[in-house]
Specification:
The structure holds two protein chains of two kinds. Chain A is mainly alpha-helical. Chain A contains 13 helices and two strands, in the order H-H-H-H-H-E-H-H-H-H-E-H-H-H-H. Chain A has a two-stranded antiparallel sheet with strand order 1-2. The longest helix of chain A has 27 residues, at 30-56. Chain B has a single domain, classed as ABC transporter involved in vitamin B12 uptake, BtuC (Orthogonal Bundle). Chain B is mainly alpha-helical. The chains are: A mainly alpha, B mainly alpha. Chains A and B meet through helix 5, helix 10 and helix 12 of A and helix 4, helix 9 and helix 11 of B.
């Protein structure tokens, strides 16, 4: 009974959240509409990483490589080589290219464990960073590239929507984010998702009872890579620009931070983390030039005092409250 | 490439390799003994360079600067270990990564507040400010040779400390089996503090001694950090000998790829790393 009430109030909360999110652009504040678009994109990026870190127990420190790669696929196809600017071609291309690259790199990095995995993913991400930093054929430059324009949604003569409109882009990202959350829910309930969580709990036992652990991990790595590529694609579209910093290890650290801030291994953790991170960034940079200093202090305090992330706050307050009553 | 150029690049590679070793050896010890991933380790190198810049203008003497700076850094390392890092040993790797990332941001920002964001240089001391002729046309700065010799001496000192002394035996024991060391009644808290302070001191020393040979710039910490990670992976976590071999290997790969394949130079060391990991997934010397 209580779980039914809980799941009902949860559903109501989710519905309310999306209603508010959908109504937000009606306030007609283009700056904030764009800001929330960015938050949603970052949360998609964080959710894709959560599949690895929170659900499979693989701490990747190179996830920004897929984020940047997704953006660069669009930049190369649409701007540098003038192949196509069509949304319907470039978006699947970005996801496919990042997923298949993640598959190939995964074959390699997933042979390592623990600390080695953290550092090897970092090192591989550096390879991609330097490729897009140095190699001219890939648009290599420290300044990156300005894009020719937003991807065109035209299907022949019919143009269903224009992504150059701030609000349209907002709703486009919102729908994709909702789809991602749905996909993650289904994935986590599927046999694959259960196996991944089993691997997180005890890899050796999973191996011993006959699960092909390596293949499952590779599947998670590939899916997470493709989804991060999608987020990176959207990020490039939002900014109308790409640059190597998208692939830098600072970006990988920031997305891990978003996940920790929100609470990893929790579907909504990525979203809450992204909101917290961007708000923190805006808030801190509005009253101090030294916002990195305060960000650093916040990180240190969160890790020392709140290891479960923002999502654990409610439980903490609850337990405090109950502790006082008894 | 003619012979003189090869010789110059070889000298550069050796010098870079030794410098890298000083930074990476501390990183690999902290990894191996305490099991902590320390992203702020590059900041200690950066701090060393900025200390050299600030102190040398105050004292006017590089020798005094380096001794003073190293002492300051060792004290800082011990304090940091006591105040922050000692809380990390029981935490998981993810939390270690994040906390030390936060520290790195704090150190970088402190640097911009206390000094500034500009690129600086430190004067080469007058007695080393000349060039040694190599072949008929090329020359090589004497300070760089001097630096290599000093780095080599420090590396040898570290080797003796780790391999030949009682403290070193404890450090090695800590790297291979932490709980056993504790059970044997060795005061692990002080061992950890010592190892950490040693690592900070070595990184800062590297930053100081390298300051006159190159520039002192804001991004230097995170750059050396990532390369040191590669060294630690290639050498094997916790192995000082591994770090030595890997430092030289990475330095040669980096130096020669910059001459031979400039476009792909940034990628070269990672390709070397990937190749070595294919062959030995736990590094050259696994502990």
């Amino acid at each position: 009974m209580s779980s039914l009430v809980k799941s009902r109030s949860r559903a109501a909360l989710i519905a309310l959240f999306f209603l508010m999110l959908a109504g937000f652009p009606l306030l007609d504040q283009p700056f904030y509409t764009e800001l929330v678009t960015r938050v949603m994109i970052l949360s998609m990026f964080a959710i894709s990483l959560d599949l690895l870190v929170g659900y499979t127990g693989l701490i990747s420190f190179g996830h920004a490589a897929w984020f940047g790669l997704g953006g660069y696929v669009f930049a190369l196809l649409g701007t540098k080589y003038h192949v196509t600017n069509s949304l319907w071609l470039t978006l699947p291309a970005a996801v496919l290219v990042t997923a298949s690259t993640a598959f190939m790199i995964g074959l390699f990095v997933l042979r390592t464990r623990g600390m080695f995995f953290i550092m090897v993913t970092l090192a591989f991400a550096q390879i991609f960073y330097f490729l897009f930093h140095d190699v001219k054929a890939l648009g290599g430059s420290s300044d990156g590239m300005n894009l020719r324009g937003k991807p065109s949604a035209a299907l022949g003569p019919w143009v269903p929507f224009e992504l150059s409109n701030t609000e349209t882009l907002y709703y486009f990202v919102m729908i994709l984010m909702a789809a991602l959350l749905l996909l993650m829910t289904l994935l986590l309930r599927s046999p694959l998702g259960c196996a991944l969580q089993g691997i997180r709990e005890n890899e050796h036992r999973m191996e011993a009872i006959g699960f092909p652990v390596f293949r499952y991990k590779l599947a998670a790595f590939t899916i997470a890579g493709g989804l991060a590529g999608l987020a990176g694609y959207l990020f490039a579209v939002l900014n109308s620009a790409v640059n190597p910093e998208m692939l830098s290890w600072h970006q990988s650290a920031d997305v891990l931070l978003i996940l920790i801030l929100g609470g990893m291994g929790q579907l909504w953790g990525g979203l809450i983390g992204a909101f917290t991170f961007v708000l923190l960034q805006e808030l801190l940079s509005s009253f101090t030039k030294l916002w990195h200093l305060w960000l650093g202090v916040t990180i240190v305090l969160v890790v020392l005092l709140l290891p479960g992330g923002m999502i654990s706050l409610s439980e903490r307050i609850n337990s405090l409250w109950q502790g006082r009553r008894t | 490439m003619d012979l003189a150029l090869v010789l110059i690049q070889t000298l550069n590679a050796i010098q870079y390799g030794l410098l890298l070793f000083l930074v990476a050896s501390g990183l690999t010890l902290v990894f191996g003994v305490m099991g902590v991933i320390n992203l702020a380790h590059g900041s200690f190198y950066m701090m060393g360079a900025y200390l050299a810049f600030t102190l040398s203008s105050l004292t006017g003497n590089l020798f005094v600067t380096i001794i003073l700076g190293t002492l300051l850094s060792v004290v800082l390392g011990a304090v940091l270990e006591w105040a922050l890092y000692s809380h990390l040993y029981q935490r998981n790797h993810l939390q270690q990564v994040l906390l030390t990332y936060g520290l790195m941001l704090i150190f970088e920002e402190m640097r911009s507040v206390l000094v500034d964001n500009a690129v600086h240089s430190v004067e080469v001391p007058a007695w080393a400010n000349f060039s040694v002729p190599l072949g008929s046309v090329m020359t090589y700065p004497a300070y760089r040779l001097f630096m290599s010799v000093i780095c080599l001496a420090v590396a040898l000192g570290l080797y003796v400390l780790i391999q030949r002394t009682k403290v070193g035996a404890r450090i090695r024991a800590g790297a291979s089996n932490r709980s056993m060391v504790q059970i044997l009644g060795i005061n692990i808290d002080w061992l950890y503090r010592l190892v950490f302070a040693l690592g900070v001191g070595l990184a800062a020393f590297a930053g100081m001694i390298n300051a006159p040979a190159s520039s002192v710039s804001p991004g230097m910490g995170s750059q050396v950090l990532i390369v040191s990670f590669v060294v630690v992976i290639v050498g094997g976590i916790g192995s000082v000998q591994g770090a030595m071999l890997a430092s030289l290997l990475i330095a040669f790969a980096d130096t020669f790829s910059k001459v031979l394949i400039p476009d792909y130079a940034g990628v070269a060391i990672y390709v070397v790393m990937a190749g070595i990991l294919l062959w030995r997934p736990e590094g050259l010397f696994k502990s």
